[in-house]
Design brief:
With 244 residues, the chain is mostly helical. It is built from nine helices and no strands.
Length: 244
């Protein structure tokens, strides 16, 4: 096997060696970084999975638009008298003697911010869907792959880490911030392929430092009733609730 073939094989060790090289080091599945050009930072191209994502985005925009009229207070809106004159006065087009109006009166109403968001979200989602359809039809015309299986599996795989976060929030009221953070802080690096004694110690120390900063020093609030701490003697329980 040539040197280049060996180097190429070392980049894809997750299937059989789970990212661990024979010497015990960590090998990334990703190829080495290439020189980045400034113009490439803003380069955009659509992939095979762009259409399903665009359909979902357009559906969400339509969902928000449909419920805007009933869920944002639009029906109970309180507009100033002579609304056209009011806006002209705000933009300096007309002067109204003896009458002081402020634009903040409208901005404080509950429907204004959602309306401004929808004015951007809905047209952007529809335009993006149109462009995705054009790209999809272009691929079909030239017999290029259109299956979004690879992209969709990557989105689905990300849900695994959402589950980890949910488990973490459930563990905090049971085991406390200290134990839960140490468990999650060592589990996630292990899951990503950073294994071995050295990586475990690094993860453990880093997780403990996070607890010291956020809980001990900054006193970030955690649940008052923690099952594990409730099993401790009264003095130790108070100490753990205060600092950990």
């Amino acid at each position: 096997m040539s040197t280049s073939d060996q180097a190429s094989q070392d980049l894809f060790l997750f299937d059989n060696a789970e990212g661990i090289a024979p010497d015990g080091g960590f090998k990334s599945e990703c190829p080495p970084d290439k020189k980045v050009k400034v113009e490439d930072l803003f380069k955009f191209s659509r992939g095979r999975g762009d259409l399903p994502v665009s359909v979902v985005a357009a559906g969400l925009a339509g969902f928000f638009f449909i419920f805007f009229w009933t869920q944002t207070g639009w029906g109970d809106r309180d507009l100033p008298d002579e609304f056209g004159t009011y806006l002209a006065h705000q933009f300096g087009l007309v002067e109204i003697e003896g009458r002081v109006s402020r634009l903040g009166r409208i901005l404080k109403q509950s429907w204004v911010a959602p309306m401004l968001c929808l004015l951007v979200l809905v047209p952007a989602a529809l335009w993006n869907l149109r462009s995705s359809l054009k790209e999809h039809n272009w691929r079909k015309r030239f017999l290029l792959p259109t299956s979004a299986y690879f992209e969709l599996t990557k989105y689905a795989a990300a849900l695994e880490f959402v589950a980890y976060f949910i488990i973490y929030t459930v563990l905090v009221p049971l085991l406390g911030y200290l134990v839960s953070t140490l468990l999650m802080g060592t589990l996630l690096p292990w899951r990503l392929g950073y294994r071995g004694r050295t990586w475990f110690l690094r993860s453990l120390v880093t997780s403990f430092a996070v607890v010291i900063v956020f809980r001990t020093l900054l006193q970030i609030k955690t649940p008052v009733s923690i099952w594990l701490y409730d099993q401790l003697p009264t003095a130790l329980r108070g100490f753990m609730l205060t600092y950990f």
